[in-house]
Amino acid sequence: MHYTGTIWRPPYEASSLLLEVTAGCTHHKCKFCTLYNDLPFKFRMSPMEDIEADLQEVASTIKRWKGFGFDRTFLTGANPFVLKFERLMEIANLVHKYIPSCKTIGSFARITDVTLKTDDELDALHKVGYDGLTIGIETGDDVALRFMNKGYLAADIITQCKRLDRAGIHYSFFYLTSISGAGRGEIGAKATAEVCNQLHPIEVGANMLTIYPDSELYQEIQKGNWTEESELEKYKEVRTLIENLTIPTIFGALGASNAFQLMGELPRDKQKLLDTLDKIIANVSEEELRHYRKNLKHL
Ligand code: SF4
Description:
Blueprint: E1 17-20, E2 22-24, E3 43-45, H1 48-64, E4 72-76, H2 85-98, E5 104-109, H3 111-115, H4 119-127, E6 133-138, H5 142-147, H6 154-167, E7 171-177, H7 185-196, E8 203-208, H8 216-222, H9 231-244, E9 249-253, E10 262-266, H10 270-283, H11 286-294
Parallel strand pairs: 1-4, 4-5, 5-6, 6-7, 7-8, 8-9
Antiparallel strand pairs: 2-3, 9-10
């Protein structure tokens, strides 16, 4: 299989076939992001021959191991959904040719990748199996989105996700706790809940900002242009987000950036999640949480 650099995938894609169709990120400008810094390039499309060779390899493995197979493929890279409509269709055709058991195809996507597709193209992509995109919206706070160079604003998230809703393409969000900076966590959480409440994310997954020295954000902090939230403010922010979400969705905080892992179905588990967060806020010290973050070598 062709895998380049660190392969990132959401926790719920653990049993999907990971197929490399891109490596890196077309945007590559978010100040906090170091995810693809191990690559010698910003973005690369895999040659179609490599994609086909990987699918042939998977197909022959499936043949040898009776009872083994995939019903879902997750295309790897930061935003494979940026690929032109024709290329995404070609990839889907290859997936179905070699892995007939595969029903759906997902990937990470940027909001701006959806903007590039027409409504008819989104419909056609859904028909060939594209479903369950994971979008790192990070926040609905325009001040933070601008400062961090995300390349879109809250209104774009709403517009483009409504287009996905219309096409029947489901999606989940990643939220980046602490992206709004010191003293603004709860503002960011409320703005994000307001965005999410107008949409239909299957899951809202929260990761906590962990700043590494090779990020642009680290330089901004050194220059005094930005201040990180305290660890306890981050937990209060997550609490505010959950409290203000009024849609039925799954809330998860499962990645390594969260010292405490949380998971629940909203609205059913809302009070349970809030109680757990209250206990953390009341009983765990800033020092203990900071110690965890400082020793987090890798996300
Ligand atoms: S956060 Fe996502 S969109 Fe932004 S640079 Fe990193 S991988 Fe690209």
